[in-house]
Amino acid sequence: MNFFEFLNESVTPFHTANALKNRFVSVGFEKLGETDTWNLECGKNYFICRGSAVFAFRIPVTFNAESRFKLALAHTDFPALKLTPNPCKKCAGITTLHPEIYGSPLFNTWLDRDLGYAGILAVEKKGRVAIKLVRGGSLCRIPELAVHLNRSVNADGLKLNPQEHLDACFAEASSPDFTEVLKKELAPDETLLDFDLQLFDTQKAALGGANQEWIYSGRLDNLSSCDALVNGLVTADESACDICGACFFDSEEVGSKTRDGAAGNFLKASLERIFALLGGDSFLLNGVLADSLLLSVDMAHAEHPSYLEKSEPNHAPLLGRGIVLKTNAQKSYASESLANAKLKLICNKVNVPVQTFVCRNDIPCGSTVGPTVSAALGIPTVDIGEPMLSMHSIREMTAVADHEMMNKVMAAFFSG
After folding, report:
1. CATH number of this structure's domain 3-78+218-415, picked from the four choices 3.40.1010.10, 3.40.50.2000, 3.40.630.10, 3.40.190.80
2. Cα–Cα distance for residue pair 12/18, rounded to 1 Å
3. 80-201: which CATH architecture?
4. Cβ atoms of 224 and 205 closer than 8 Å
5. Per-residue pLDDT averaged across 176-193, rounded?
6. pTM for the complete prediction?
7. Residues 235-270: pLDDT tens digits?
């Protein structure tokens, strides 16, 4: 699966996780279950899933006292409009679907777009609950108010109330209820119990720019990082003694405090189990982690040509000029000098330039999964990413060259 296919398929975190699982299976990774008995063998590759989280890892040729962990993190979710449990409203002759805000999307970018709906259905079949991945065939739309009815919009700016102004037009009012439409996805012996669905932009990823140097797509934050981690892990040279792993968490956009988020025990429990099964002394694990390296990979802000004043002048990454190392004195990013230096050494070896991002002191900094996992594991961490524009828009923008460079860095990290 190429990058654009991955972007177009991964329209929800559930679809992202499914695409990741399929990619790992296609290159020979063995799937493990959390309730299964594991039999790990040196030189082999495995992955484990929990909800919309996936952890893939490669066992080294030899496990010994010198073995350490090389870990990289990304997240499978993105800002979105999630459909409420009872989404249907009927007004003005139209059935609309009411969403709940997930994360911090740029509301105005969702207007006048061709929107699909996708996610999972929880169904009862023969007395058991099963999950079905779905992607609806109907298009929705959130129409903007005409300028004739909002004469000051261009002077005063568009002001949207997320409760009142983001309902999506789904059908004319006399059409069947939305849940009746969902039931068409079921087999005759299945009963719909629950669903977790969200709206998404149906426009496919595309190349842009005079020289096809840019990528335009929804969900680049953080599917670009997911793609780079997969490519790096599966193409890296076989590790002599280090355990290499890529973990893809859900729920980053809403704080990570879920069972498949970075604040859960998914990664920590997996590492403890792997280390023990390979013969490691559990009393030494904390020390081994403290001598390992973690890359937290999430997208970074590029300098905006129309808003230069929003960037810190000496730390304003540019599109197409290399990956970004993100630092913050308040530790919203986990980067520390030891990890930073190791990352720069890797980049030097593969001739990838490193840009540095620091927020202005008068603009609050965002965060990543890096600080959460670094604190829980006690592992040196550096936060990195590809520079991008329109972050959290329904359609974002990044550079082809930067994505290619991130792929090189990840392959080098897992190979070293």
Report:
1. 3.40.630.10
2. 10
3. Roll (2.30)
4. no
5. 93
6. 0.96
7. 999 898 999 999 999 999 999 999 999 999 999 999
